[in-house]
Write a structure and sequence with these properties.
The chain is an alpha/beta fold. It is built from 7 helices and 7 strands; from the N terminus they run H-E-H-H-E-H-E-H-E-E-E-H-H-E. The strands form 3 sheets. It has a 3-stranded parallel β-sheet, with no helix packed on it. A two-stranded antiparallel sheet has the order 2-4. Strand 5 and strand 6 form a beta hairpin. Helix 1 packs parallel to helix 4. The radius of gyration is 18 Å and the shape is globular. The termini are far apart.
Length: 150
């Protein structure tokens, strides 16, 4: 990394250049916002600990969730660059956060794990988000794609 350049500044500059190059070639650019990260969650460990009685369902729910202020703070630097591209109408944002979050984000719904680890979705999690991609796949082109929670 170049000296004196923060990682977030480097990310922002590289993302902006990438988007400009794609748009310059005539492409419409969609950007998937990273799914909310669950810093303490590992579905394999949670399942094993539940099975052996080392963890209660309530403790599992705590491990599979993160409060919005902590999540926003963790993603703040990357979100600045993304937010600017959205505001400048350079990208169309596919946003899974409204589907997974209110006051907090949860990696489990009705006992089903939506995450394999702290930031990768399981099949169950992916199915819950699949309709977010319809505008992208159909070309209907909503500016920001963020369907309400089911």
């Amino acid at each position: 990394m170049p000296r004196g350049v923060s990682q977030s500044a480097l990310f922002g500059a590289a993302l902006k250049l990438t988007v400009a190059e794609l748009k310059g070639e005539g492409h419409e650019v969609y950007l998937l916002r990273q799914v909310p990260e669950m810093p303490q969650f590992d579905s394999v460990r949670v399942a094993r600990d539940l099975a052996y009685g080392r963890l209660t369902p309530d403790q599992a729910r705590v491990l599979a969730s993160v409060r919005m202020p902590a999540l926003r703070d963790r993603n703040r630097l990357a979100e600045v660059s993304i937010g600017q591209l959205v505001a400048d109408r350079q990208v169309r944002l596919i946003d899974p956060w409204p589907r997974l979050c209110r006051d907090s984000c949860s990696g489990m719904v009705q006992g089903a794990s939506l995450y394999f680890d702290n930031n990768h979705m399981t099949y169950e999690g992916s199915v819950r988000l699949r309709d977010l991609f319809i505008p992208f796949m159909s070309g209907s082109g909503a500016t920001n794609i963020a369907a309400a929670r089911p």
